[in-house]
Design brief:
It is built from seven helices and no strands. With about 130 residues, the protein is mainly α. About 30% of the residues are buried.
């Protein structure tokens, strides 16, 4: 899955939570699309299915399941993402869901950028 060489974990932890979430959003979307592409569904159906998986409400529900399984560092990154000062929210999503989703995306971004592929895969596979 790595497209870039991993960064030093200390450097990744210095990045802003919203930067980590920005990367994590892309990682999550690519993972979901890759999983869904293993079929014969039409692109419009695939797009709908992918959108359902990556929307804030789905990620917020996933966050509830993940919290007890995160390491101390991952939990810290999650809280940074969840508590980040976001100036907008997704359409048709509650701000609570959007904040939790941002926390999950921050964790995914942290794991991806620090090269923790096995852990990233383990978490992505936890998604309902």
């Amino acid at each position: 899955m790595p497209l870039l060489p991993p960064l030093d974990e200390r450097d990744v932890l210095q990045l802003g939570a919203l930067t980590l979430a920005f990367v994590g959003d892309a990682v999550h979307s690519l993972y979901v699309r890759g999983v869904l592409a293993n079929g014969t569904l039409k692109p419009l159906v695939l797009h709908k299915m992918a959108s359902d998986k990556v929307r804030a409400a789905s990620q917020a529900a996933w966050a509830e399941q993940l919290l007890s399984k995160l390491t101390e560092t991952e939990l810290s990154v999650y809280h940074r993402g969840r508590n980040a000062n976001v100036h907008h929210k997704a359409k048709n999503q509650t701000s609570a869901d959007y904040r939790k989703a941002t926390g999950v995306e921050a964790v995914l971004g942290y794991l991806y950028l620090s090269g923790q592929e096995e852990r990233l895969k383990q978490i992505l596979e936890e998604q309902p």
